[in-house]
Amino acid sequence: MTKSGTSRSRRPDLAIFIPSYAGGGAERVAMFLARTLVKEGLEVDLVVARETGTLRDEPLPGVTKVPLKAWNEMLAAPAWIRYLKRVRPRCAMSMIHSANLISGIGAAFVPEVPVIVNLRIAAKTHPAAQWWFRSWFGFGPESRLYQRAARIVGVGLPKGVANEAIEVFGVDPGRVRAIANPRTAWTGSLDIAPEHEPLFETPVILGIGRLAPQKDFSMLLKAFAKVAKTRDLHLVVLGQGPEHDMLVEESRALGLADRVFFVGFVPNPQAYLRRARIFALSSRNEGFAMALIEAMEAGIAIVSTDCPFSPREALDEGRFGRLVPVGDADAFAEALEAELDTPDIGQVKRRELRADWMEQFTPERVTEQYLDLVREVIAENDR
User: Fold this and answer.
1) Longest dimension (CA), the chain
2) CA atoms within 13 A on the CB side of 277
3) Structural domain of 71
4) pLDDT at 26
5) Of 10, 20, 239, 316, which shows the fewest CB atoms inside 10 Å?
């Protein structure tokens, strides 16, 4: 067990469980909550199945880091159960579907610790973007485990994952909450890696996300290929993932080797968003895309698939960005063309136009919602 703050004087109020320190949106939200809830007076453990990932050294003042040292997250259940029995946190909360499954198992074996499960992506989606466990076993195992959860958080606005959880997993609507991801007012450096500066000397379409089937960067490559036939553009993609090599090869096959750049994980995506012309979200499904909120915050123009669930809700039915059908490269290319042909009002003006709408995603509001939820669960369990 490693600690990022003072020594523990009592059992923690909250244990946040994540699979690893990967640099995805869910992991960043977990760390955001750990930091902000500690500032609100909670004692917080951040429990990690595997100590791997780009966020491993992220500073978390006052938070106790607990490594389970599991071989992988799906084999972390015994260590998670031992942790719950030994430490007995007053409340536990899991992020990401694999951690949610393990968290549900923990709730079955240690029922005295109430569990909050965060569902972050749509359950019913294209087979290629489906979590392998659901492809093999369906929704039954999760449904049985989530029945034991004290609360289910559907990350996003009420019409999205929260409503779907009631339908798909059969959970009591009274135990379901919808809470959006927080926007992040960037206070760090807006400098980018020197080797990336030349990429932005040409107008850039920017993609951000894990290089995995869910994000459908393959479709984005096909759409970009159509647009790039008549325009001098670069496509820059931030993120890592299992499809990296395949996507690089596909970009070469499309004749885009000198126009498409996969730059990997970057700690300051806001700096890249502030330099790009268009943010492109090509996902087959989402829960509430962190990158979309960051793009809204940056003031960049947005073209997004109308996937379940977050883009339509986050963009206010298309008021703040263009929406196109999922998987349709032709339609996506047309939307990119239309945006490029529209006079650019600039990021400062877009931030002004979005300011009132973005108030619902402030870190303070999101922190308050989670703080109220954790306190509600603890008080209910104490009774």
Assistant:
1) 67
2) 20
3) 2-182+362-382
4) 85
5) 10
The answer to whether residue 113 sits within a structural domain is yes
Strand order of the β-sheet with 260-264 is 260-264, 234-238, 204-208, 278-281, 301-305, 322-324
Let me know whether 165 and 252 are in one domain: no
Q: What is the pLDDT of residue 126?
A: 65
Residue 21 belongs to a domain: yes
Nearest-angstrom CA–CA distance, 127 and 214: 9
- Give me the residue label for tokens 């549900």: 104
DSSP-derived 3-state class of residue 302? strand
DSSP string covering 154-210, please?
EESSTTTHHHHHHHHH---GGGEEEEPPPP----S-----GGGGGGGGS-EEEEES-
User: What gap in Å lies between CA 381 and CA 375, rounded to an integer?
Assistant: 10
Contacts 24+ apart (CB under 8 A), 363-371: 363/32, 363/36, 363/182, 363/183, 363/184, 363/185, 365/182, 366/179, 366/180, 366/181, 366/182, 367/33, 367/36, 367/37, 367/40, 367/182, 369/177, 369/179, 370/33, 370/37, 370/179, 371/37, 371/40, 371/42
How many Å apart are CA 377 and CA 383, to the nearest integer?
10
User: What pLDDT does 6 receive?
Assistant: 41
Helix, strand, coil % in the chain, rounded to nearest 5:
45, 15, 40
Given the structure tokens 């992040």, which residue do they identify? 184
pLDDT tens track for 135-170:
787 778 888 888 889 999 988 776 678 888 888 888
CB contact burial 281-317 (16+ within 10 A = b; e otherwise):
bbbbbbbbbbbbbbbbbbbbbbbbbbbbbbbbbbbee
Structure tokens that stand for 69 in this block: 């040292």
Query: CATH code at 285?
Result: 3.40.50.2000
Predicted TM-score (pTM) of the model is 0.78
Q: Smallest Cα–Cα separation from 323: which of 304, 307, 299?
A: 304
Structural domain total, the chain? 2
Mean pLDDT of the chain: 90
